[in-house]
Amino acid sequence: MKKEEAAKELLKQTKEKEETLHEMLNQPLSFIQKALVDGLYTFYFDVLGKKPKIDEDAARQARETFKNYFPEKVEEMLAQLLDDPEGYHQKVVAFEKICPPVFVDFPTDPSYYRVIISDPSRQLQEVLTRLALFSNFPSSNGKYSALDVGTGYGRLAMVIEDTLRSLYAGGKGYRVFGMDISEGNIEAAKKLNRETGSEITFFTRDMNQIPFPSDSLNLVNTTDASYLNFRHRRPFYIAEIARVLRPDGGVCCITNPNELTTLKEYNYVMMRTNYRTYLNPVNIMKATVLGKCSIYIDALSKARPDWALTTTADMTDTLTRVLKADIIDITNWPKKGGPSIYSGFTFAVNDSTKRQIDRYTKFRERRKAAEQWFDM
Ligand SMILES: C[S@@+](CC[C@H](N)C(=O)[O-])C[C@H]1O[C@@H](n2cnc3c(N)ncnc32)[C@H](O)[C@@H]1O
């Protein structure tokens, strides 16, 4: 299929998925559905006492210390990093000595995700990733490299590979990479990779330190992962993505949960969109394991400033004002209003972006020697 035809077909699919999602989200919850979510929460978290606990003293100290080290807005943090990369790096190290970061291992083993994979909102993410790929796929069949950041078990990396495979019609002009901080998730990704015959390179790394040369990738995808990054480290993540992308490269970033949706509301949404899968008791228990992790993240993001979520508006302001990047699309899904479950944006770096991060790029390349980088 030609690129233009394939893109047209994808746009049609996006519209259909958005319609389905919109319809489902507007269905009232039945008594049973609501009781299931409420009952499960009460039973698991209150009766069984499985609610994860926050260290209140550490949270208080983080609140007091954070404001001594960092400005309030991510855009100001990024401006500081670009102006004086070494100074900003030192500040992060000093802050984290006083307030050690809390890591939450987020399990994305396929067996958990199979519970939610038929959810139309997840399918919509996949279509949007394909669309982002189409929007910056070069018309000449040059070499194309794509990276999925916070890949989990490689769900979106596999979508990217599948799309490139059809665009290159069997040729080998592309490479796909997936990175994640969790060794367990990367092991699951590698296993699935072997089983399904895909050829993605998966590796373990923090999203704030991308081991690729500058100007080497065409696409960075990052779905449902950036909200797990620490607020004060986020400038590294943004600058790293801008550094590794080619001057005409693009980004698809989908965040979750939507900044304005509480976890319980989100679970009501899941119950609406995918309740038949949820009604299976085994699946309910699997989802609860993920829920425990999400509840903890929810509470942490309210208690600790280094965990505070960054909104999509913050991100896009930062990208345009500080990085001079071109925003392609900002959206909340479903677009027609009502409860929103995903928020995301696509953007492209350009020559001005590259000029803005010049000092940062030099700082990062000096550190290259200490790290293994992918040969591109
Ligand atoms: C909710 S999962 C999403 C996985 C995948 N993108 C998807 O949509 O199927 C979030 C992923 O982000 C990863 N993650 C969290 N913090 C990270 C970090 N600092 N660097 C890289 N990955 C990270 C987690 O390990 C987890 O696999």
How would you explain this protein's 3D organization?
This protein is α/β, with parallel strands linked by helices and 376 residues long. The chain has one domain: 3-Layer(aba) Sandwich (Rossmann fold). It is built from 15 helices and seven strands. The protein has a seven-stranded mixed beta sheet, with helices on both faces. The longest helix has 23 residues, at 3-25. The chain is globular. The two termini are 28 Å apart. Bound molecules: S-adenosylmethionine.
Query: What is the end-to-end distance?
Result: 28 Å
Number of strands: 7
* Bound ligands: S-adenosylmethionine
CATH class: Alpha Beta
- Total of domains: 1
**Named CATH architecture:** 3-Layer(aba) Sandwich
What is the strand content? 5-15%
Structural class: alpha/beta
The CATH topology name reads Rossmann fold
Q: In what order do the strands lie side by side in the largest sheet? A: 3-2-1-4-5-7-6
Shape: globular
Mean pLDDT, rounded to whole units? 86
Q: Report the sheet with the most strands, covering strand number, pairing sense and barrel closure.
A: 7 strands, mixed
**CATH H-level name... which superfamily?**
Vaccinia Virus protein VP39
Order of helix and strand elements from N to C terminus = HHHHHHHEHEHEEHEHHHEEHH
Enumerate the spans where pLDDT stays under 50 for 5 or more consecutive residues: none
